[in-house]
């Protein structure tokens, strides 16, 4: 799949934002007043900024308001609705904390739950895609949730949970890559099943239907850049979980080093999300004899 | 509404004959011409005369080579357009309600007025049947020429999809797969119509008729390769010249 910057920024930042929001909703850290303002500002900038980035992926954004209508069948529609609901519920909770010095904890719990459901709906946009076997597995939702919770804990300054979650995330990301690598073969899709010609022999593409690439090839058969995948995986996993966890374990808390830990996590997150798209193989590539 | 109809009265679709398709791409051109000038936004071309011309097409012809061990390679031309799946994943993923499957005839369509161009339906389609138009920013796909097949303003023989009407080899057949007596249902039953990527669970309506077994061209007793249909010309003259020939031989 084409790793479009808009989609990478969208899933990374909004995941992080809703992750932080979930922690704030559960009451960690127990902030109020101006400090709460800054925490909620960061959460909203990330979540809303991510959602806005996704609009740049649209060919016809003026119709995006209609995306709230098809919640019965569409995960993307559900995601849009849940995102707005989470932002609204959390806004009530945040107003109480910032301006009224009131902790409406039930509202916080509800907002946190909606934030986590939002992340789940995001993960299902990808997890539902039977056409992309690497995404279409039961590990995709827990991976997205763990990304959000670990990153959120880091931003919320929850040192002990952050260390545990970052380690868990590193392990789950590694496992997801290992299992994901075998998914395409396990789905039993080949150029022979795609064309139905397998009983006649071995199939190869003799002549492409078009001399230039087309929308399908540009969007779904992204092969360029995969050759560095192994190196990028190592870079990602080190920056994502290992560096921040080591900083949190070894160094007593200070804002400078916490900033470095967050920055490292963010870069690792972007690299892993780039790989999430760039390494995903769509079955339509088989009609072009490409993976 | 992007939930799928539980049942469609008809299942209109195509039976595509991989045995007779000659790979001329006439269906591709005819489809582009009809659909760029009728239903919905036109099918744009980008850099049409440049180094990398690209455009939106609803029908494409791939050409494959198939070779079994110890036999000759075989060329198969493979037209590919929307298969109008019964369980169309492109419809259910649509967030705006632009994609839908008609309950009366099973045709899968995009209502461009509602499409926001997110491209998720194209991701969900295993067959590559949907292309996002670069200029209009909306999703384009085969409509089964819904604006021809019911069109009372054109002669009756033209009320079939443009690709079917134009195919010079008769490789594309249009009809109702819900009716077991229809020509396409009978063709599919007779020829063992193929379902593409069955494991995806999309239940496509269109069927592909597999290539028929080829004559063994290596067995020269079965077939005279250079001159299969002509008898050898007689080297002996007949009539008066024949008598003369025989008489002269005997002298």
Structural class designation of chain A: mainly alpha
| Strand content bin of chain A | under 5%
Number of helices of chain B: 7
What sequence of helices (H) and strands (E) makes up the elements of chain A?
Answer: HHHHHHHEHHH
Secondary structure tally, helices of chain A:
10
Strand order of the largest sheet of chain B: 10-1-11
Main beta sheet of chain B? 3 strands, mixed
Q: What is the chain-wise order of helices and strands of chain B?
A: EHEEEEHEEHEEHHEHEH
Beta-strand percent range of chain B: 15-25%
Low-confidence stretches of chain A: none
Quick one: overall form of chain A?
globular
Which protein chains make the most extensive interface, counting residues with beta carbons within 8 Å of the other chain's beta carbons?
Answer: A-B, 61 and 72 residues
- Structural domains of chain A: how many: 1
How does this model look, in words?
The complex is a heterodimer of chains A (291) and B (251). Chain A has 291 residues and is mainly α. Chain A has a single domain, classed as Up-down Bundle (Formate dehydrogenase/DMSO reductase fold). In chain A, 66% of the residues lie in helices and 2% in strands. Chain A has ten helices and one strand, in the order H-H-H-H-H-H-H-E-H-H-H. In chain A, helix 1 (5-25) runs antiparallel to helix 2, helix 1 packs across helix 5 (140-155) and helix 4 (105-127) crosses helix 5. The radius of gyration of chain A is 21 Å and the shape is globular. The N and C termini of chain A lie close together (10 Å). The mean pLDDT of chain A is 94. Chain B has 251 residues and is an alpha+beta fold. Chain B has a single domain (12-209), classed as 2-Layer Sandwich (Alpha-Beta Plaits). Chain B has seven helices and eleven strands. Chain B has helices at 26-36, 89-92, 120-124, 146-149, 162-166, 183-191, 239-250; strands at 12-17, 45-46, 54-55, 59-67, 74-81, 99-101, 108-110, 130-132, 139-141, 172-176, 207-209. In chain B, the strands form five sheets. Chain B has a three-stranded mixed beta sheet. In chain B, strands 2-3 form a two-stranded antiparallel ribbon. In chain B, strand 8 and strand 9 (139-141) form a beta hairpin. The radius of gyration of chain B is 25 Å and the shape is elongated. The N and C termini of chain B lie far apart (97 Å). At the A-B interface, helix 3, helix 7, strand 1 and helix 8 of A face strand 3, strand 4, strand 5, helix 2 and helix 3 of B.
């Amino acid at each position: 799949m084409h790793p479009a910057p808009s989609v990478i920024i969208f899933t990374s930042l909004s995941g992080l934002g809703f992750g932080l929001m979930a922690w704030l909703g559960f009451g960690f850290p127990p902030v109020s007043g101006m400090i709460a303002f800054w925490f909620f500002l960061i959460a909203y900038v990330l979540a809303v900024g991510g959602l806005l980035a996704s609009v740049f992926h649209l060919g016809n954004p003026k119709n995006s308001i209609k995306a709230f209508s098809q919640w019965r069948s569409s995960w993307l529609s559900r995601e849009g609705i849940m995102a707005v609901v989470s932002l609204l519920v959390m806004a009530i909770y945040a107003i109480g904390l910032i301006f009224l010095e009131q902790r409406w904890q039930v509202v916080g719990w509800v907002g946190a739950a909606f934030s986590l459901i939002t992340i789940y709906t995001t993960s299902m946009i990808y997890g539902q895609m039977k056409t992309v076997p690497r995404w279409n597995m039961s590990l995709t939702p827990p991976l997205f949730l763990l990304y959000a919770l670990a990153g959120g804990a880091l931003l919320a300054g929850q040192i002990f949970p952050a260390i545990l979650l970052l380690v868990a995330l590193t392990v789950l990301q590694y496992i997801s890559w290992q299992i994901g690598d075998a998914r395409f073969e396990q789905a039993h899709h080949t150029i022979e099943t795609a064309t139905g010609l397998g009983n006649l022999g071995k199939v190869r593409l003799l002549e492409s239907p078009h001399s230039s690439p087309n929308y399908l090839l540009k969007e779904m058969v992204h092969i360029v850049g995969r050759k560095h995948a192994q190196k990028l995986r190592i870079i990602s996993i080190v920056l994502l979980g290992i560096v921040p966890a080591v900083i949190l374990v070894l160094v007593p808390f200070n804002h400078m080093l916490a900033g470095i830990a967050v920055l490292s996590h963010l870069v690792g997150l972007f690299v892993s999300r780039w790989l999430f798209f760039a390494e995903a193989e769509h079955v339509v590539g088989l009609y072009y004899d490409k993976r | 509404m992007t939930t799928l109809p539980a049942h469609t009265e008809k299942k209109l679709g195509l039976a595509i004959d991989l045995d007779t398709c000659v790979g001329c791409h006439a269906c591709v051109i005819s489809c582009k011409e009809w659909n760029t000038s009728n239903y919905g936004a036109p099918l744009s071309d980008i850099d049409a005369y440049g180094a990398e011309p690209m455009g939106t097409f609803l029908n494409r012809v791939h050409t494959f080579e198939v070779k079994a061990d110890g036999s000759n390679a075989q060329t198969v031309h493979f037209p590919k357009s929307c298969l109008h799946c019964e369980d169309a994943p492109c419809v259910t993923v649509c967030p705006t309600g632009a994609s839908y499957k008609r309950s009366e005839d099973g045709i899968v369509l995009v209502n461009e007025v509602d499409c926001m161009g997110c491209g998720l339906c194209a991701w969900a389609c295993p067959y590559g049947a949907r292309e996002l138009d670069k200029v209009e920013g909306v999703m384009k796909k085969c409509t089964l020429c819904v604006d021809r097949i019911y069109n009372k303003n054109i002669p009756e023989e033209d009320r079939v999809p443009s690709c079917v009407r134009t195919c010079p080899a008769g490789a594309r057949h249009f009809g109702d797969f819900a009716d077991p007596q229809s020509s396409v249902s009978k063709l599919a039953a007779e020829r063992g119509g193929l379902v593409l990527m069955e494991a995806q669970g999309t239940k496509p309506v269109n069927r592909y008729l597999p290539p028929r077994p080829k004559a063994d061209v290596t067995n020269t007793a079965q077939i005279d390769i250079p001159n299969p249909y002509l008898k050898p010309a007689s080297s002996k003259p007949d009539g008066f010249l024949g008598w003369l020939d025989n008489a002269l031989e005997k002298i």
